[in-house]
Design a protein that fits this description.
It is a single chain. This protein starts with a helix and ends in a 12-residue tail after the last helix. About 65% of the residues lie in helices and about 0% in strands. It has two domains: about 1-135, no CATH class; about 145-230 and about 305-420, no CATH class. The chain has about 425 residues and is mainly α. The protein has 15 helices and no strands.
Amino acid sequence: MRYLLLLLASTVNDYTMALLIAKFRESSYKKLFLSLSILGNLGMLMYFKYVNFFIDSFNTLMNSFGIGTSLPILNVVLPIGISFYTFQSLAYVISVYRGNLKATSDFIGFSAFICFFPQLVAGPIERPGHLLTQFFIKREFSYDKAVLASKQIVWGFFKKLVIADTCAENVNYIFNNYETLNGSLLALGAVYFAFQIYGDFSGYSDIALGTARLLGFDLTVNFKTPYFSTTVGEFWSRWHITLSNWFKDYVYIPLGGGKVSTLKRYRNILVVFLLSGFWHGANWTFIIWGGLNAFYMIGEQVIWKKVVALKERNPFFLVLNIVITFCLITFAWIFFRSANLSEALDYIRHIFSKTIFSSPGNPNLKLTALFLILILLITDYLNRKEYFQFVWRGYPKWVQVLFIYASFAGMIYFSKSQASFIYFQF
C-alpha cells in the first residue's frame, strides 16, 4: 500500500508541476517547477534504489583510509517499476517545459498514462506525445488487431517461459560453479545469458505490446532484432530502444550531442552509458558494464569506421561485424550478470585460462537450450527488415495455427517454478 502511495505522490507532483509550468510565462518560474519535478523524481529514485549503495561505498572508502566507519545499511525495499515510471513521468514534465506538449488538466488521464499496467513495471518507457494522447481518443475493437495481439502475447510468453527460463538453468549452473568449470564452458555461459536476458526482456515487451493492443493502445517497439547488429551503436538503436532514446533526448543532446568537439562528444557518450549502467542498478558491475559499452562506442568512432564500412560491400565483413559485435556485447553481459565486481573479474580470468580450448560438454547442462536459441535466431532473421508483429504473418493459416499450438505445448512442457522477469528488479 505504501508503494502505491509513492506512485500516487509521484503522479500528483508531476501533474501539478506541469500545470504550473504551463501557467507561468516567466522562465525563472518554469525552471523552478521543472527543478522541483526533477528533484522529486530523482530524489525518490536515489533513496529507494541507491541509498545503500552510497552508504556501502562510503564505508568502504573510509575503511580504505583507515577510518573505521560503519554507517548502518537501511532496510529499504525497491518498489517495482520505479525506474520506469519516474523516467516516463519526467519525460512528460520536460516535454511541457520545452513547449513540445500541452499540460493536461485531466488528472485521471494523466494517472492512466503513468500507471498503464501492461508497461508499468518494466517498460517500454513511453513518451507522453505517443501514449498520453491515446487516452483521449475513441478506440474501437478490431478483430484483426486482437488476433495479432494475441499471437504476440503468446510469442512473448514463449520467449520468456521456454527460451529464457531454459537458458537460465544453464546460466545459473555455470555462474554458480564457475570456479570448477573450464574456460570454454564459462564462455558458453555468457552466451546463454545473452539469450536469457534477450528472451526475458523482449518477451516481456512483446507481452506488454500485445496486451496494450488488445485494449486499443499502441506502445513503442522496444526491441528490433538486436543480435543481428553490425556495430555496438546499431545494437543500442535496437536494444531497449525507449531507454536509449530517453537518454539521447534528455541527456546526450542537452550536453551537446554530436555537435561539439570530438573530445566532448566522447565525454557525452561516456556520461550517457555510465548513467545507463547506474540506472540499471546500485552495483559497480552495472557501472563497469555501462563504461564498457561507452568504450566500444568510442572505439568504433575512433578506429573502426573503415572496417565497419566494408560490410556494405562484402557479405563476409557483414557476418564478421555481427559476430564481433555479439562477442563484445556478450563480454559486457558478464558484468551485468555477476553479483559483484570481484566475481565478474574472477569469471573472466577463468575464461581466459588454458582450459578455454577444452570441450564445453557437461552432463548438467540442457542442450535443448541451444535448439531454442536457434529458433529465436531464425525468427529474428526472418523479421530483421521490419519490426516483428508476428513472424509467421503471411504464411498459410495452418502454419500459423501449428506454430501457436506448438508454442503452447512448449510452454507446458518447459514450465518451471515461477521465475520473475529480470527487469522487475530495476
